[in-house]
Amino acid sequence: MKQSSECVVIKGVGSYVPERVLTNDDLSTMMDTSDEWIRTRTGIRERRIAADYEATSDLCARAAQLALEDAKIGAADIDLIILGTLSPDMLIPATAMFVQRKLGMEGIPCFDFGAACSGFQYGLEIARTMLLSPQYKNILLICGDKLSSIIDWQDRSTCILFADGAGAVVLSREPAGQPGVIDVLLGSNGEHSDILNIPAGGSREPASERTIRERKHYLRMDGREVFRLAVQKMGESMGKILERNNLTINEISHVVTHQANVRIMHAIAERLRIPMEKVCITLDKFGNTSASSIILAIDHHRRQGIISPGELILTGGFGAGLTWGAAIIRL
Ligand code: UT7
Fold first, then answer.
1. 226 lines ligand 1 (CB under 6 A)
2. Which atom of ligand 1 is nearest to the CA of 224?
3. Whether CATH 3.30.450.20 fits 2-175
């Protein structure tokens, strides 16, 4: 892409959550917790849980179809699929392959990437830089997870947070001067890899009777530390991206952060002096759906007429790794 004569446009957005609703009251019949604790500590009221027969690729394919419809382009016009997930259908092959098959898009390249809950920002940057190549004109970026399949339903500190869902965007190279992806800023620090991970099932500790007995195939998290670093790193990156684009929060219409905990959102808003009316929240309905949470929130608010075309949106994400990122976009 020639720097000044072309830009990356978000042509379509789509999202999908499974039908089954699991409320806080439902959870309190399954374990020692309460609606009051979950609401006041996280902001979550209910979440969606996929059916047994639904895998991550099924959720992703539904979201992708809706994004294609929204973009008004056919599957045949997509040149590349990139998919961010931490709950792949299988370890091999990439979940993007299953989505490709479901959508009948055989032949084009597709791959998964692992940036956990910062997947939206990482995916935007991968797509944006790949659109520099004349080989790609339209890229389908999908983020989706069936987190209910990797959380420990005996661990009340994590299983009340995470949920299932998928989001997709169609990104296209177009002549400059149109709304789209304005800037993306990414960061990570592997020193924090132990505060949020799934210890077993990979090459470090292959699956065995012992690892299963020790419940090491489930997600483990040091919630307090993740909370602290989320506020610090996401706050820093969102502040930096505003600064390097000579923007103030007054010029931003909507702020969409990773939907992990409403207290994290309040802390970020306080730090960056963002009025809470600008902060989009879907966490109460959908819980933490990892990388898809930002796309879900954008799509939900857009379909309700709260986000209008052309408005400036600031996004911020953080997740296992630790990864973090921020992006400024216009739909
Ligand atoms: O997308 C990835 C990102 N992940 C996150 O963003 C998570 C960030 N962290 C958090 O959101 C919060 O740390 C949590 C919501 C996970 C936990 O909230 P907290 O205010 O940090 O609580 P805590 O872990 O300090 O636990 C406080 C108390 C403990 O009891 P004691 O030791 O004070 O007696 C926990 O055992 O709350 C207890 N507790 C619960 N009680 C009722 C933990 N989970 C529950 C629960 N229901 N579900």
1. yes
2. 13
3. no
